[in-house]
Amino acid sequence: MKKQTIFIATALFLTVSTYAQNVNKIHKKAILIDTHDDVLSQQINSGYDLAKEQPEYDFDLVKAKRGGLDAQVFSIWCDEKGDYSNAIREIDSLYALLKRHPDKIALATTAEDLRKIVAQNKLAALIGVEGGHMINDDLAKLDELAKRGMIYLTLTWNNSTAWATSAVDERGGKLKDRALGLNEFGKKIVKRLNELGVMVDLSHVGEQTFYDAIKLSTKPVILSHSCVHAINPVPRNITDEQILAVGKNGGVISVNFYNGFVMPNHEEYFKTFLDKYKDEYRALRTQNSATAKKELMKRHSDEFAKIQPSIDLLVDHIDHIVKLIGIDHVGIGADYDGATSYPKGLNNVADYPKLTEVLLKRGYTEKDIHKIYGENFLRVLKANKGK
Fold first, then answer.
1. Distance set, CA 70 to CA 28, 276, 342 (Å)
2. Measuring CA to CA, which residue among 94, 112, 68, 214 is closest to residue 150?
3. Are residues 1 and 120 in the same domain?
4. Phi-psi domain of 137 (left: phi exceeds 0; alpha: psi -120 through 50; beta: other)
5. Closest CA to 190 of 169, 158, 215
6. What is the pLDDT of residues 136-183, one digit of tens each?
7. Against a cut of 0.90, is the pTM above it?
8. Considering its fold, how many domains does the chain have in total?
C-alpha cells in the first residue's frame, strides 16, 4: 500500500510538473503586448529608474522580464488640468529610459520594429497618448506627437474635449447643453490620425463619439483598455453593439484588468471597505489617494480578498468578446499603474503566466493565446502604419 501511495504521488507530481512546463512554454513562445500602462505619469514625479525593480509600481523592466512581457505601450496621461507640455515631458522621460538602457529596451513605432526588438531579447516600448485634451486643439501638436512616436491617440479621457464627448460625461448626463459626439474639428482629427498611421483609440469615449469615429475611420481602431458592459454595466465599459461595430471595423478590444471594470458592484464593495477603515485611510491620505488605497489593501489583504474578482471573471470578458466577434479582435490592456486593484493573482506584470494558465484551462489553444497576447494588436498596428 505504501509503495502504491508513493507511486500515485510521484505520478501526480510529474503530471503537474509537465503541465506547468507546457504553460511556461506556451507563454514564452507568445509575443505578449500590453497596450496600456500608466507608469510614466507616476515615475516622472519620483524619478525612479524603471530598469530596477520598484515595489510600488506594477511595471518595471525586472518584473516585465519575469512575466514574459515583450512589449509595453506606455500611456502618456495627465488629467484634464494638464496639456501638451505634460505629454512632451512624459515622452522625454521614456526617451531618457531608452538612452540609459539600450541593452534592455528600445522604441518601436511599427509592427516590424516590435518584432525585431523582441527578437533581440529586449522590451519593445511604444507610446500611446491617453486623452485628446493633450493636443491643445491643435493639429500641429497632433503631428508633433506622431513624429515623437505616438502609435495611438485616445480621443478623450474621462473629460470631454471641445471636439469629442467622453463616456463618463455622456452616460452621466453632464452634457445637456452641447451636442454629443465629434464636431467638425473632431472629425478632422480622426481623418488626420488615419493619414498619419496613428491608431484611433476609442477607450474612454462616449457612445456617440465612438460611433462617429468608427464610421469615419478608414482603418481598424483599437480600444486600448476596456471591458464588457453586459457583464459589468459601468460607464467605461462597452456595449455588445459597440463590440459588434469593432468586429465589423476589423479592430481590437484590449481587456482592462481593473477590478471596478471587471466585477459588478466592485466600486460599492470597495467603498464599504474604505469606510470600514476610514480613520486609517484618512491618516494614509498624507500620501496620494492611490498610494493610500494600495497601502490599506496591503494591510488588510484578507479582508480585501473577499471583494476581489478571480482571473476567471476577467476571462469571462475575453470570452464574451470572442463569442460576439471572434478570436481575432481581443487583446490585453491591463491598465497597470493606472488602476488601484486587479483580480486575485494578477498584481503586476510579473503575473502574466497565471493568465495563460487560466486561458488554457478555459479551452483556448496556443494559437488563440498568441492572437490575444499580441498578434491581433500587431495586425491592427500594421494596418494603420502600413508596415
1. 9, 40, 21
2. 94
3. no
4. left
5. 215
6. 999 999 999 999 999 999 999 999 999 999 999 999 877 878 899 999
7. yes
8. 2
